[in-house]
Amino acid sequence: LISSYGFSQQEIKLDIADALIIRSLEFSYEKYLTEESSIGVSALFNLTKQDVGFRYNENTMITPYYRHYFTTNAQWNFFGEGFLGINSGKKETIKNSGDYDIKYTDGALGVAIGMKYIAKGGLVIDVYGGLGRNLFGSDSPVIVPRIGLNVGWRF
Question: Which of 15, 57, 88, 131 is deepest in the core (most CB within 10 A)?
Fold first, then answer.
């Protein structure tokens, strides 16, 4: 327990792909438990209007995650991730009607894989992709994507 607190590498990141392509903000915080594992949380806020064709279904999503790093190279690391995405949004009552009046909140369980680059000065870039499945609601989408291109800082 004491050694895990002594290894206190932390990162804060912004998903620049979401910000530039989909007009949503996703911030992440990650804390390393050991050299090979970390825990973190992401918060997604969708800024795109509901009736736009290419957007996330979710308006907000809080995603706690656990990552295991399969390589411990100083600069490039391959990882696997398990996550629980608590998401909420709106759904159309009748398909293609434009009336988004059914609100939902659900929890998705999923996995992702990715690659992380860590520069000696503290710059962090990670790319990941995965899928989750909503478990509880009947009004929520079945599949929840987890994709990103994060840029951040390690301290």
Answer: 15
CA angle 41, 133, 130 (to 5 degrees): 60
Task: Compute the half-sphere exposure of residue 131: CA atoms within 13 Å on the CB side of its CA.
Answer: 4
Under a CB-based contact definition with an 8 Å cutoff, are residues 127 and 113 in contact? Answer: no
Calculated CA dihedral for residues 121, 10, 146, 77, nearest 10 degrees: 50
47 vs 23: CA distance, rounded Å: 6
pTM: 0.86
Q: Where are the beta strands (DSSP E) in the chain?
A: 10-15, 24-32, 37-46, 58-69, 76-91, 102-118, 123-134, 143-154
